[in-house]
Amino acid sequence: MALEISGLKNVVCLSADTDGRDGSENNAGAFCDGLTHQRMAAGNVEIEEYLRAHNSWSAFDAVDDLFVTGPTGTNVNDFRAALVL
Q1: How many Å apart are CA 41 and CA 39, to the nearest integer?
Q2: Is residue 55 within 8 Å of residue 46, measured between CB atoms?
Q3: Which of 32, 56, 61, 64 has the fewest CB atoms within 10 Å, i.e. the most exposed one?
Q4: Among 58, 73, 85, which residue's Cα sits nearest to residue 21?
Q5: What are the pLDDT tens digits along the chain (85 aa)?
Q6: pTM here?
Q7: What is the C-alpha to C-alpha distance for residues 37 and 18, in angstroms, rounded to an integer?
Q8: 44 exposed, middle or buried (CB, 10 Å; 0-12, 13-18, 19+)?
């Protein structure tokens, strides 16, 4: 998603799991906006390599965009949201 919205100044996205854990990691998911890809590139994060390795956690952790809630006690579904202003 960060690649798709790169450069857009009016879009913010969230992808998260309602139980508070994305797979085996300690985060529920991650945020991204139109500047996420640029911030990753500035930090020498090669987003395409992380995508090929199915390792979004490390890419979003590098730019402090992880969404951390702790355990929620629920497991309803995965949640995706996009805010377009």
Answers
A1: 5
A2: no
A3: 64
A4: 73
A5: 899 999 999 999 999 988 787 777 788 999 999 999 999 999 999 989 999 999 999 999 999 999 998 888 888 888 999 999 9
A6: 0.84
A7: 25
A8: exposed
